[in-house]
Amino acid sequence: MIALPESSRELAKLTWDEILPIYNDLFFHPLTLENATQWLQDWSDFEDLLGEAREQTYFDYTCDTGDRQKEADNLRFQTEIEPNAAEQRVRLSRRLLEVGYSAPELEESLRRFRTTNEIFREENVPLNAEVERLNAEYQKITGSMTAEWQGEQIPLPRLRPFMLDADRQVREKAWRRHRKPYVDSRDELAALFSEQYKVRQQIARNAGFKNFRDYIHVEKHRFDYTPEDCYAFHAAVEEKAVPAAARILDRRRQKMVFEALRPWDIGADPEGKPPLRPFESADEFIAKGVSVFNHVDPILGGYFKTMQDEGLLDLQSRKGKAPGGYMTELAKRRRPLIFMNASGVADDVVTLVHEAGHSFHGFEQFGHDLLFCQRWPGMEMAEVGSMAMELLSAPYWSSEEGGYYNEEDYRRARVDHLEAIILFFPHCATVDAFQHWIYTDPAGAEADARDAAWVDLRQRYERGVDYSGLRPEWIARWFQQLHIFEVPFYYIEYGIAQLGALQVWRNAMRDQASALTAYRHALGLGSTRPLPELFKAAGIKLAFDSATIGELVDLVETELEKLYR
Q1: Is residue 510 classed exposed, middle or buried when 0-12, 13-18 and 19+ CB atoms within 10 A define those classes?
Q2: Do residues 24 and 91 make contact, with C-beta atoms less than 8 angstroms apart?
Q3: Could you tell me the pTM of the whole model?
Q4: Got the DSSP string for 315-351?
Q5: Residues 437, 453: contact at Cβ < 8 Å?
Q6: What is the pLDDT of residue 372?
Q7: Which residues share a beta bridge with 327?
Q8: Cα separation, 547 vs 440, whole angstroms
Q9: CA quadruple 507, 513, 517, 519: dihedral positive or negative?
Q10: What is the CA radius of gyration of the chain?
């Protein structure tokens, strides 16, 4: 095999014309059943290095969206290298399938290879590159958004503490200013999405599908559930979670003594107390995280300490930094990397433990030799790792346990977190149902129809919040949802995973040691088992029915009643 660059950063400097010979060397190398395992190892080693280069380039850009060189490097990777590499992966996987290679521990990966080969079309390679270009444009538009506050232009994430202020006028002002850039950019973002929509629908038609919804369910290898299961989830959420969310919101309204709850009232403390301030500096934020994870499980605490020691945490909000938070993997180094926009509010703690859960998933599955084939279980299981960690770590957020809060603030943080879980289900159903509608109804091509459909769905699922006089801001909420623009249909996974995470939490309340053992075992399986078997390994079940959702919603409400006082 052609000698690989020694580092991912060195590989990241190469053009596609310089990378293609590596794929060609693999493709033209004699392949038989006798040497297939070594050939697959060589391919995996290369993909680890290329994947690390891709993720490091993306990380560097999202940390500094104003740097033109970083923007150009990321755009080149996303629009030139990655679409062409995806074509080569299909080419190589086809060779592996043609020789009849099989291995029990790789059956899931081989099933994915077969599916990807079936739907691959060469004419979609430039279209996928165009989608990535449009995605980068969305990042550029939203990453540059700022708001004027106290005479200074600040990144939107830095408005979050003010959106939680005890003074209703302050949080209203902050909420409106947070939404205003999206309202002002509505036409630009709507036009951008229309372009994405057209390209994605064409990709689906080229692959023989009626619409992008049907295509993406296959492309995402959703072997174990269907669009009909998603509709069942929507219905179950409406039946079980929406009434529970309405009860939470009405309780809040009564405690705040308001006739109606406005959107800027949802996050603030209902008793008028100032926002929780769990930490003052990034160093404190990280150090307390180490303590929290050590209490959950010393092995997990060790993983997080490694990330601290090796500089794998970029947590604070800065001007020019892309919004949001994520974990990615440096596959060659066998290390995870966390990106987020901390501003000293309670949500930062939840985001950190969530992304740390993803990181622990990475550490647990780094033991597989063929990472390229064995590490990716799908977002449904990946999000179980992160969402379960929110719940597993929560008992140790108290300062008595070395965490972030005194006794009173700890109670508030737990209430806020558990209420947010219930409130999330209606939002999740809205985002998923919205995308099902967009790509299966011809009206989804029209900007005004999309806005109207979003509002209709919010009225169906978000009961108890008064948006009168705020229609443009209400509509703007979907323009904030980067998943709809950048990774369409990646959202139902959160709902499925939250149901799994609640089951892990339920098990931990009965026997934490056993629950953690099962949790880590399931994460360590990577993608070597189908989704239902991964859930089973974690001691939970994959389900979409009202009974399951109802049981778990009841569990959260019961715990909330213990915390309310």
Answers
A1: exposed
A2: no
A3: 0.86
A4: EE--TTPPSS-EEEEETTTTEEEEEEEE-SSHHHHHH
A5: yes
A6: 65
A7: 338
A8: 29
A9: positive
A10: 23
